Amino acid sequence: MEPDFSVGAQIGRLQHLIWRRMEASASACGISGAQGQVLLFLLKHPTLYQKDLERIFHLRPSTATGLLKRMEKNGLIRRESCPEDARLKRLIPTQRGRELNSMVHGESEKIEALLTKDISSQDLEAFFRVVTQMQQNLMADCGKSTQPPNENEGG
């Protein structure tokens, strides 16, 4: 069987491998890979709401709700009502969430180092240009803003 060299198939395979590695790393911390990603982002950007996470991580509201409920149950975050709008809940890392930061951050850096090993800075620059253009193409096709969030913030 010949390998599929389409862009979507290759990105899908890479994403699956990254996800498997993230899950293995996060499980050592007692959390999921998605929880680790959100926790890292939240600790870098302390004034976030669920809507922000939905936009930044391209999540459906129901997916974000489930993820945040599990994070609350695991003692990683708490939600605090916004004084200006009680419907908005600010996401606040707990002490446990802050304590896991260095471990999760270290694992994230290991994965990033594995991904970029033996790849030149010029090739990485080209990669980011191409991926950004692909994101813009897809978002424009979906009728959304053509300005993607800074994916480097996603952890």
Number of domains: 2
Shape verdict: globular
Annotated CATH topology of the largest domain: Arc Repressor Mutant, subunit A
| Percent in strands | 5-15%
Low-pLDDT residue intervals, each spanning 5 or more residues: 145-155
- Any idea of the CATH class of the largest domain? Mainly Alpha
Using the 3D structure, state the CATH architecture of the largest domain. Answer: Orthogonal Bundle
Helix content: 55-70%
Structural class: mainly alpha
How widely separated are the two ends?
A: 36 Å
- Main sheet? 3 strands, antiparallel
Secondary-structure element order, N to C: HHEHHEEHH
What is the CATH H-level superfamily of the largest domain?
Winged helix-like DNA-binding domain superfamily/Winged helix DNA-binding domain
Number of distinct helices = 6
Q: Please list the strands of the largest sheet in the order they lie side by side.
A: 1-3-2
Q: Average pLDDT across residues?
A: 86
The total beta strand count reads 3
How does this structure look, described?
With 155 residues, the protein is mainly α. It folds into two domains: 8-108, Arc Repressor Mutant, subunit A (Orthogonal Bundle), CATH 1.10.10.10; 118-149 and 151-155. It is 63% helix and 8% strand. It is built from six helices and three strands, in the order ααβααββαα. It has helices at 7-27, 33-44, 50-57, 61-73, 95-116, 121-141, and strands spanning 48-49, 77-81, 89-93. Strands 1-3-2 form a three-stranded antiparallel beta sheet. α1 (7-27) crosses α2, α1 crosses α5 and α2 crosses α5.
